[in-house]
Design brief:
Elements lengths: L7 H18 L25 H22 L4 H29 L10 H18 L3 H21 L9 H10 L5 E3 L4 E3 L7 H19 L3 H18 L12 H24 L7 H4 L2 H17 L3 H16 L1 H25 L7
Antiparallel strand pairs: 1-2
Helix pairs in contact: 1-2, 1-9, 1-11, 1-13, 2-4, 2-7, 2-9, 3-4, 3-11, 4-7, 5-7, 7-9, 8-9, 12-13
């Protein structure tokens, strides 16, 4: 891995995305969450809806930085392909283990098959194969355009874009049935926000990140800014015909969030890599999957053994009395992130990095 390029800005953005995941996934009281910290009910885009796209965008950026220099150095493709696929398989397996743990300890009725890590694994594997086998930038751009156009036409051909009637939910329900996030046995309808069909849109986000990563490693700063502005503006234009929707990961959502991701990357690079600002979030970024998985297991164990509610009431009940339930819930989420910030900082200082 010595030939790869490492940018503190990329680690920082990845880490901030992970910290934000922990923040929005662990409120003290799900009934009292400030609106910006919740996902859109369906159409639309809240700040929380940006977190997962930003992470997948950084997946693409990281692959460009890790594999691009090796390919330039004429490294053999087969070992690189094996490394990509093996790591993707490990991420996928970890995602299933976390879901097994939740199913076992929290008494969930069914084991859910799709999930966040499962989607990351698929996007990582396919984006890695694109880097290795479609070397030309024009080929990668062509694939991205075909993917966005094809997925957009598929959604339009499927008819309704409501939650249960859209084609992605219908196909995912047929594929996963009761093993999806939502399932109605009486109607045969269901929905999963990390379903297989909508992963087409998520893959496009990673492919957009690939292009941003190529610009970053080639010092094409102007192109990176133009990518961000152009993609975000195009996303808003496309949203007039097919709305922003995180759960369907519509093409407009890909372009809008990918554009914002590119702008965030350009700004972070300017401030951190060039101007020397502190790389806030770096400790989360260099142990990203470990932090996410560890936080997940922590939450599942607390919930599974009935410790979460008394912990929240005992440690944050006074905030509820003084400042209201929304602030108490937010305080718990911030405290949860702070605990994990201490953990990953300690690991980083000792050079301990968990790789999947």
């Amino acid at each position: 891995m010595s030939a790869s390029q490492r940018f503190a800005s990329v680690d920082a953005l990845r880490g901030l995305a992970v910290a934000a995941m922990l923040l929005v996934n662990n409120p003290g009281d799900w009934g009292h969450v400030y609106a910006p910290l919740e996902h859109s009910a369906w159409h639309g885009c809240t700040p929380t809806d940006l977190i997962f796209p930003f992470f997948l965008f950084i997946v693409g950026v990281s692959l460009a930085l890790a594999l691009g220099p090796r390919l330039d150095a004429q490294a053999p493709v087969a070992p690189l392909r094996r490394t990509v696929l093996v790591r993707a398989a490990r991420i996928l397996a970890l995602g299933m283990v976390l879901h097994l743990l939740a199913w076992w300890l929290m008494g969930k009725p069914e084991l859910r098959i799709p999930g966040v890590l499962q989607r990351i694994a698929i996007c990582f594997a396919l984006s890695g194969l694109v880097v290795l086998h479609l070397r030309r930038s024009a080929q990668q751009w062509g694939l991205l355009a075909l993917l966005l156009l094809g997925y957009g036409l598929l959604l339009a051909w499927g008819g309704s874009l409501d939650k249960v009637g859209n084609i992605a939910s219908r196909w995912d329900a047929a594929l996963f049935g009761r093993f999806g996030y939502e399932w109605n046995a009486a109607t045969g309808l269901g929905h999963d926000p990390e379903g297989l069909v909508s992963t087409l849109g998520a893959l496009a986000t990673s492919l957009l990140g690939l292009q941003a990563g190529q610009y970053l490693r080639r010092a094409q700063w102007q192109n990176l800014w133009l990518l961000g502005l152009g993609s975000a503006c195009l996303g808003l234009l496309v949203a007039e015909f097919q709305p922003l929707n995180k759960q369907l990961w519509t093409p407009s959502f890909v372009l809008w969030t990918g554009g914002l991701g590119a702008l965030a990357l350009a700004l972070a690079h300017r401030l951190i890599d060039q101007a020397g600002w502190p790389a806030l979030g770096r400790s989360f970024g260099v142990n990203a999957i470990a932090a996410y998985a560890g936080a997940w297991m922590c939450t599942v164990i607390l919930e599974g053994f009935g410790l979460m509610a008394p912990l929240y009431a005992g440690a944050f009940g006074w905030i509820d009395c003084l400042a209201g339930p929304f602030n108490a819930s937010l305080a718990f989420a911030i405290a949860f992130v702070a605990v994990w910030a201490v953990i990953v900082k300690w690991l980083d200082r000792r050079g301990i990095y968990f790789k999947v």
